[in-house]
Amino acid sequence: MARVEAGDDPADFTEDPTPRQRADEALMLALRRDSGLDVPAWESAHGRAWGAAREALCARLAREGKAVWTEGRLTLTPAGLLLADEITAALSMAGAPGENP
Does 12 map to a domain? Predict the structure, then answer.
């Protein structure tokens, strides 16, 4: 409180995420919403291609009942939401060819 009362910045540190980290965070947050992830909007916002590996993963998640994958939108089902962290990590790691890890 003393910092705030003195007019100083109360933060002990600040974070400067990389473009990849920002893209992954947007992915993680979108997958937790009822509206899901709009893939073309995500690609445009983050300058990244979704890629064939992610497409295949989305198709598999849909077959397994963990997601609905239609018209460029990925929405997790209740079963998928229970695995949201795992799914986010898998989609992040799948990446597009040449995408930095």
Answer: no
The half-sphere exposure of 76 on its side-chain side, counting CA atoms within 13 A, is: 19
Q: Is residue 8 part of a domain?
A: no
Report the number of distinct structural domains present in the chain: 1
Asked, for residue 100, whether it belongs to a domain, the answer is no
Look at residue 96 and tell me whether its pLDDT is greater than 70.
no
Q: Which of 83, 18, 98, 19 is nearest to 51 (CA)?
A: 98
pLDDT in tens, 54-84: 999 999 999 999 999 999 999 999 999 999 9
Q: The domain containing residue 69 runs over which residues?
A: 18-94
Residue 23 belongs to some domain of the structure: yes
pTM score of the predicted model = 0.81
Closest CA to 68 of 45, 97, 39: 39
Q: Does an H or E element contain 24, and which?
A: helix 19-31
